[in-house]
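Friendly challenge for the regulars: who can give me the structure tokens for this chain first? No prize, just bragging rights.
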Amino acid sequence: MTTPEDLLATPTRKKRVQGGLATADVVLSAHAGGNSALFPQILALHVPDGAVIADVTFGQGVFWRDVAPGRYTLLPTDLATGTDCRALPYAEGAIDALVLDPPYMEGLLRPKAETRGGLGSHVALRDFYASGGAHAAPGGGRWHQAVLDLYLAAGQEARRVLRDHGILIVKCQDEVSANRQELTHVQLVTGLAALGFYARDLFVLVRAGRPGIARLLRQVHARKNHSYFLVFQKVPAGQDVARYRTRDLPPRQAPPEAPPPGQPGPGLLALPPAADPA
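First reply, four minutes later:
Bragging rights claimed.
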């Protein structure tokens, strides 16, 4: 029988028990070493297994050396395969994650070939994307502005091919250009936010050893010995980037079969091949 005291009694609430484990085994934001050691950690933290990842500046595949084969469906393209990162051959919303690592020092993009930096694997990139050349970024900027124009044009194309909440991983480095400090990573966070990308994470990669200087007259700025991996998430159209919150990208139910190098997978092709992708 219910008594008046029972009706007045305060119901007991279950005590909340915090979940999780105590551990120091976590991915850190700063890393000393090489790209190939850090990149798999970034993927494991931000990209689900089975995701379709387009590396649009694949080059020699350094980022992927320590990534377990078969964990993701990789679509590797670059200028050697005839693919400009600003004009990708994929359908809208077809890609889960995209990796972008274009030339990020203005010396690689100078309009005059005799003053242009970069040797070895950078030769094709610097010649193709040089400021003022036939394939220059739409902004037509010079010096450091040419670097930003290239990144943002590629970012606009990345937004087209990524599905909603898709992941964009960008490699960049700050620089001093024309005696002006250029914080490239800050400029990209701001510029890509204007394109509809939320800055989800940031990783600092510190190079091993000390850089050598061929001719030093007087040091004005600190020498850069670190670079960045920036992780962005595509905010769906109509949503406010400033109010967006980090969320997981749901894995695909049935990822497409990995295509041959340089070729888009089934159902991904959208644009016909062009003689001049720029």
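The mean pLDDT is 81. Residues 144-161 form the longest helix (18 residues). Your move, everyone else.
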